[in-house]
């Protein structure tokens, strides 16, 4: 019941699967990097119309991951996106992926200049 199967499992048998949460890799990246000018871009998809909840999730992600930029979007408002920069808040928004790519490229270039 608690260990690996020692024989073939019958198709009619009930199977219980226990999942264990893995640590968020994003939260550890800066500590692993040997690059002091590393810029971290995180992505946060939400699925709630509650703007306060979205803001709390963004703040938590920024705090825990120490991300420099976060691209947020909500499942109910796809393809709309917002780009946030640490210390500056929302710096761009749009609906086209190409616009997001250009905004992110510009901001990353500016942050490294």
Describe this structure in words.
- The protein has 113 residues and is α+β, with helices and mostly antiparallel strands.
- 31% of the residues lie in helices and 20% in strands.
- The chain contains three helices and four strands.
- It has a four-stranded mixed beta sheet, sandwiched between helices.
- The mean pLDDT is 92.
Poorly predicted regions: none
Please compute the radius of gyration using only Cα atoms: 20 Å
Could you spell the SSE succession in H and E letters?
Answer: HEHEEEH
Spatial order of strands in the largest sheet: 1-2-3-4
Structural class: alpha+beta
**Helical content class:** 25-40%
Average pLDDT: 92
Total strands: the figure is 4
Strand content: 15-25%
> How does the major sheet shape up?
4 strands, mixed
Distance between the first and last residues' Cα: 59 Å
Which word captures the global form? elongated
Summed up, the helix count is 3
Which helices and strands occur, and which strands form pairs?
Blueprint: H1 29-32, E1 41-46, H2 51-65, E2 69-74, E3 81-85, E4 89-94, H3 97-112
Parallel strand pairs: 1-2
Antiparallel strand pairs: 2-3, 3-4
Defining key terms:
113 residues; alpha+beta; 4-stranded mixed beta sheet; 3 helices; 4 strands; 20% strand
Kindly summarize this structure in a few lines:
The protein is an alpha+beta fold and 113 residues long.
